[in-house]
Design brief:
The structure is a single chain. This protein is of the alpha/beta class. Helix content is about 40%, strand content about 15%. Helix 1 packs across helix 7. The termini are far apart.
Length: about 190
């Protein structure tokens, strides 16, 4: 008799501005019945220190399992490794492009491609503005492949008071895509 497969979620953090989204996501997932598998790009490690003061080691410490960005033999690069899917937060345009073009040139892009080919959920928190037509076409392509493009666009109905409130709302929206319960923001007309 085999044991049940654990609920696993891949988290990618790229070098786009907004590393705080990935950090907060990992913090929130510590409260969920989910095993986290983290990949941080080299650029993400540098941006994290500049924007947040967090070191790569501290961020990795939030995950259950972590991989190097060029560790192409990692379990998450195979469809036989069952996961719920993947969230890339933040997702750089470079990573969006790699996913849209099925490049698989980094572990983040390869894992995202695997998630799509296995028809699992892929959420891309694309962090760029303004957007030109090429960016929009890349978003259209990944959406047609089955990904969810979830830019960190703030809502104000929950009356955010701090940057953390805005970050929590985006992270909560990403968790909603996987049906994971949270109390990161007040929902519309929810008391």
């Amino acid at each position: 008799m085999s044991s049940p497969i654990p609920q696993r979620l891949i988290v990618g953090i790229t070098g786009a501005s907004g590393t705080v989204y990935g950090i907060r996501l990992l913090e929130a997932l510590r409260e969920a019945p989910v095993q986290t598998h983290l990949v941080m790009s080299e650029a993400a490690k540098r941006v994290a220190e500049l924007e947040t003061g967090w070191t790569a080691e501290e961020i990795v410490g939030l995950a259950d399992v972590s991989y190097l960005p060029d560790e192409m033999e990692a379990p998450i690069s195979s469809g036989s490794f069952i996961t719920m899917g993947m969230i890339v937060a933040p997702c750089s345009i470079k990573t969006l492009s790699s996913v849209a073009r099925c490049a698989g040139d980094t572990l983040i892009a390869r894992a995202a491609d695997v998630v799509l080919k296995e028809r699992r959920r892929l959420v891309l928190v694309v962090r760029e503005t303004p957007l030109h037509l090429g960016h929009l076409r890349l978003m259209e392509d990944v959406t047609q492949y089955g990904a969810v493009v979830l830019p960190p666009v703030p809502a104000f109905y929950h009356e955010p008071r701090t940057i953390d409130d805005l970050v929590d709302q985006t992270v909560g929206k990403a968790l909603d895509q996987f049906g994971l319960e949270h109390a990161l923001f007040k929902r519309w007309r929810d008391g």
